[in-house]
Amino acid sequence: xxxxxxxxxxxxxxxxxxxxxxxxxxxxxxxxxxxxxxxxxxxxxxxxxxxxxxxxxxxxxxxxxxxxxxxxxxxxxxxxxxxxxxxxxxxxxxxxxxxxxxxxxxxxxxxxxxxxxxxxxxxxxxxxxxxxxxxxxxxxxxxxxxxxxxxxxxxxxxxxxxxxxxxxxxxxxxxxxxxxxxxxxxxxxxxxxxxxxxxxxxxxxxxxxxxxxxxxxxxxxxxxxxxxxxxxxxxxxxxxxxxxxxxxxxxxxxxxxxxxxxxxxxxxxxxxxxxxxxxxxxxxxxxxxxxxxxxxxxxxxxxxxxxxxxxxxxxxxxxxxxxxxxxxxxxxxxxxxxxxxxxxxxxxxxxxxxxxxxxxxxxxxxxxxxxxxxxxxxxxxxxxxxxxxxxxxxxxxxxxxxxxxxxxxxxxxxxxxxxxxxxxxxxxxxxxxxxxxxxxxxxxxxxxxxxxxxxxxxxxxxxxxx
Length: 466
Prior knowledge:
The protein is mainly beta. The protein folds into 2 domains: 2-149, Elongation Factor Tu (Ef-tu), domain 3, CATH 2.40.30; 156-463, Galactose-binding domain-like (Jelly Rolls, Sandwich), CATH 2.60.120.260. It is built from 3 helices and 34 strands. The strands form 8 sheets. A 7-stranded antiparallel sheet has the order 2-1-7-8-9-6-3. Strands 11, 12, 14, 28, 29, 31 and 33 form a 7-stranded antiparallel sheet that branches. Strands 13-32-15-27-30 form a 5-stranded antiparallel sheet, with no helix packed on it. The two termini are 12 Å apart.
């Protein structure tokens, strides 16, 4: 058996090895308790609907004996434990120093799992703390800690694919999905072990050798909306529109739409038919609508998204303007639920129509290229705050250790020049899932469809009990 405390540099063996500490009883990890929130419509009604259940961190106590041939041996062993417990609490309160873990393996072989210690105390027994016991070379004590509700296994790189054989070491994605380029990677559910959803460390290396640095990354995650059949790209040229379809090698699919209007009233820019098969795959999920415009987005435009069924409007967003602080041709346009009924996935769902509307005093001009329906089982946006990531540099979005930085690609020269918004990617055990990426350079209005990144994904499988 292995039972020890460690911060990765200093380790104290608790199972009777080299550190003068011996277990006085078997250690059996406790399962976390659960807090529940239920709703009952009437006070005298049986049962209720479970709205939310959350697991609590685990408090455990362990009887140990600290032995030594001298008093200093015993005090040194005590202080080594107390230093790690104090460091664990300091890391929680102020983010200083490395986290501290309890590591455990109950058999003589197999993987070692870890659970982060949040705080703890070592309390010598009153019966053995007297002077006579010191002379006898042993002190009984109770070691108590509060740890995370889960255990993490060894770190693993997950094989990825976007058409070829699943592989580790980096899979290339581009900036659209039009038959020539691909902006997603698939993960086989059999490669995600454990019981609980687990955060990942995403490593995104800029492999596009141009002067424009990588500046913004939009990341979507699909675990529940049938990744294999959910078509996430809606090309502007495939929509119904009164605008003109224009050709360009720098547009997704080789075409974009030029839409102009000269009145003050709201205009329907694009109208896509969302077929029954797409709605069935969507399964009632929520999707960030992200659009790429072929040319600079006209300022002062008010947008609206609307969903129609059999020529009737069944949902519409409020009018909105995109964030004026960033001159970007890739823009988040809000969130829609598809379909807005029959949540959970059903076959033979009725087809819908998705409309993009625009309004501006005196009219305006837009150059829509494509719309991406971005699943939000996890949704994350990385914004450069100072300089972006140059060619060969790597963005590391580490949900395991809660870090976000850019480095040289070799682990050196770390800089905290990106800001993350939204939830970090969290993979679900046993589910086939897909990650989607859209990018924008650090240069105004530059979002090349051929821009490439190499994607790598690492995780630690999570379990409740061992």
